[in-house]
Each structure stands twice: as structure tokens, then as C-alpha cells.
Design brief:
Keywords: Membrane, Transmembrane, Transmembrane helix. The protein is an all-alpha fold and 177 residues long. Helix content is 76%, strand content 0%. The relative contact order is 0.09.
């Protein structure tokens, strides 16, 4: 009988903890995200969507800037998860690759710029704690994460762009068949 009571307490406790997590989101990140989205959309309206589109178009013409600079700026300024909204300024054929590059950069940036993805900070801090225990400095690893991150997002962006193009070509061929 006592076992059933403890099992029931554990079961309801699971949902209570889920509710606490949800309330943390409602009072924590969600208001911030809503205000950030509103702010970015207001800036875009003030500057003009056509001008923002023009800058994004210029940044996406070059394959290197498309998968390094654009994701870097979006993650740095808009942080995770708002950074993916920069994808609305990217040509349709580049959207999957832009998303892949941006999502792949939200961890490597945290060592130098923790504001960009606070939810990933625990991973970096775990590594940092190990380095501190060894008496090693944190700066070099943060810079290396950042540089390797830029290389990785470029490679992922290019790879995803190639895969997306092949898949789109197959779709066109099968529609014409």
C-alpha cells in the first residue's frame, strides 16, 4: 500500500515539475523572446523590409558569407532561437542550408558570447570546469570553439546546399516524368 502511495506521489510530482518548468519558460524566456521578436520586426519595418532584404541578398550571394557571416550575425544579435528568423531573408533554395549553419553555431559561440545561447552554456561550462581543475586558461578553448564553429557551419551549409539542390532537382525531374 505504501508503495502505491509513493508511486502516486512520484507520478504527480513528475507533472508538477513539468508545470514548474513550463512556468519558468512563461516567466523567463517567452516574454524575452516575444519582446525580441517585436523589436526586430519593428526595426525591420523602420528600416524597410526591402533594405533589409537587399543587405541579406548581398550577404547570401557569396557562398562563404552565406554560411559564415549571416549565421554568425543572426546568432550573435538575435540569439537562439530567434536567430533562425534571419532565414526569411534568404532565397528559398538556401533556407535549409542557412538553418543548418545557424543551428550548428549556437554552441560554439557560447564560450566567447554566452548571451547568444544561454541554454547551451552548461555544456561549455562543463568543459571549462575541467580545464580550470587542470589549471588551464579558458580563453584559448573559447577562441578555438569559435573558429572551429565557423569552419563547421561553412562546411555544413555547403553540404546541405548541395544535398538540397540535388533533392530539388529530383523533385523537378519526377514532376516532369
Amino acid at each position: 500500500m505504501e508503495f502505491l502511495a509513493k508511486a502516486a506521489e512520484w507520478f504527480i510530482g513528475l507533472f508538477q515539475e513539468g508545470g514548474n518548468t513550463f512556468m519558468g519558460l512563461v516567466t523567463g524566456i517567452l516574454p524575452t523572446l516575444i519582446v525580441l521578436i517585436t523589436f526586430v520586426n519593428a526595426i525591420i519595418k523602420l528600416v524597410g523590409e526591402d533594405k533589409v532584404q537587399k543587405v541579406a541578398t548581398i550577404a547570401t550571394k557569396n557562398i562563404v558569407t552565406r554560411y559564415t557571416i549571416l549565421p554568425l550575425l543572426s546568432v550573435f544579435f538575435l540569439t537562439n532561437p530567434m536567430c533562425y528568423t534571419f532565414g526569411k531573408f534568404v532565397d528559398e533554395k538556401y533556407k535549409p542550408a542557412f538553418y543548418d549553419a545557424a543551428v550548428s553555431f549556437v554552441h560554439p559561440i557560447t564560450g566567447l558570447f554566452p548571451h547568444a545561447n544561454a541554454s547551451e552554456l552548461f555544456v561549455y561550462l562543463g568543459v571549462a570546469e575541467g580545464l580550470k581543475q587542470q589549471g588551464l586558461p579558458l580563453g584559448p578553448i573559447a577562441v578555438r570553439y569559435f573558429i572551429v564553429g565557423l569552419i563547421v557551419i561553412f562546411l555544413r551549409g555547403v553540404t546541405t546546399e548541395i544535398i538540397t539542390a540535388k533533392m530539388m532537382d529530383k523533385r523537378v525531374v519526377s514532376k516532369n516524368s
